[in-house]
Amino acid sequence: MKPQYIIITLLGFSLYWMFLLYQPFLLSIMIAALLAVSTASVQRRLEQQTGSVLLASLISTITLAILFFAPLGYFLTTFTLYLGNTDITALEQIYFEISDWAGHMPSYLAFLQPFIDDALSEIEINKLAKHTLGMAGTIGSYSAGFLKNALLIIIFYFFSHFYGKTIFAYFRRVIQLPQQDATLLSFELSSVMSVVFYSILTTAVFEGALFGVAVGFMGYNGLLFGIMYGFASLMPVVGGALMWVPFMVYELSHGNTGSALFIVLYSIIVISIIADTLIKPVIIKEINLRIVKTDAKMNELLIFFSIIAGLGAFGFWGMILGPAITAFFLSLLKLIELRQKVESA
Fold it and tell me: Of 85, 288, 279, nearest to 191 (Cα)?
């Protein structure tokens, strides 16, 4: 047997065992690497300002943990405690208030009567309370797993920035990828992931803050519901309606027509129309021009479907994995196209 065949066989054998060894961490490593690619331009600027790769990596990591993972951790922990402390009498009171309101519904909302009656007829308070407590246990278990994965992602994110250039240069040498091709692939992937990441972050923070201020003014936990609205707004089409519709129904059931009308008009006009349609694109464009330093052109419909596909295939982290996989595939097609042009010239 030729020596190169022995080496290839040993390499395949070692890759198999490397996969078994690091399989529990592969998703965390992938997410951390993609987040590092998304914030590469910010990392470069921090390195220039601080003069230290270590310090820049620490600042990037702490900022990501505060902006992205701390709100998620707070939401999961607080929501679990709320569900765990659910009182059956409180559920009964809410049920009877909604039933009473449905029986005296205003004429302009009469078209909702059949749907509300059907929904109320299927609700059994005891089963609902039991289901709520079971949900609290499920979310609590998920929260523990999420916090563990979040910690791993933060750690891998730091090392991705700190050793990123060295790792990229090593793999480029191993697979013998020309510098021009490596630059094209890294630029295309970084540009697309930056647009996706900053779009997600801007949407969650901006719209969540607007909703949190409104419900905080109404006497609710603005921080909690603002975080919930921020992540709900990432879901296409339905988005924020998952949050403001229950608020509207709850306020109406208490006879607070003015508050219900306020939350509906505020959510539709201020958040959906003014903030999401008019202001958010301007903010994202300014971020791309001033921070990312590129006016990346990416088909928004393609990004939309890649996020949808990613959420369906990978769950929560699919909103990052979906666009990354799509962008990498399109970058490879672009690279093949350029190579064909060079060869035919």
Answer: 288
Q: CA–CA separation, 307 vs 331, rounded Å?
A: 17
Task: Give SS3 for 283.
Answer: helix
Residue ranges of alpha helices (H) inside the chain are 3-22, 26-38, 40-50, 53-64, 70-84, 88-103, 113-121, 125-162, 164-174, 179-217, 222-232, 241-253, 257-265, 280-287, 300-314, 318-344
In angstroms, the CA 105 to CA 252 distance is 9
CA-based nearest residue to 133, from 72, 91, 95: 91
Residue 81 has pLDDT above 80, yes or no: no
Portion of the chain with pLDDT greater than 70, in percent = 72
Q: Is 65 exposed, middle or buried (0-12, 13-18, 19+ CB in 10 A)?
A: middle
DSSP state letters, 81-132: HHHHT--HHHHHHHHHHHHHHHHT--GGGGGGHHHHHHHHHT--HHHHHHHH
pLDDT digits (tens, 9 = 90+) for 141-194: 666 677 788 888 899 999 999 988 888 877 777 777 777 777 777 777 777 777
- pLDDT digits over 99-132, tens only? 666 666 666 566 666 666 666 665 555 555 555 5
Structural domain boundaries of the chain? 26-176, 180-345
CA–CA gap between residue 286 and residue 288 (Å, rounded): 5
* Residue whose token pair is 């309101």: 101
- Whole-model pTM: value is 0.72
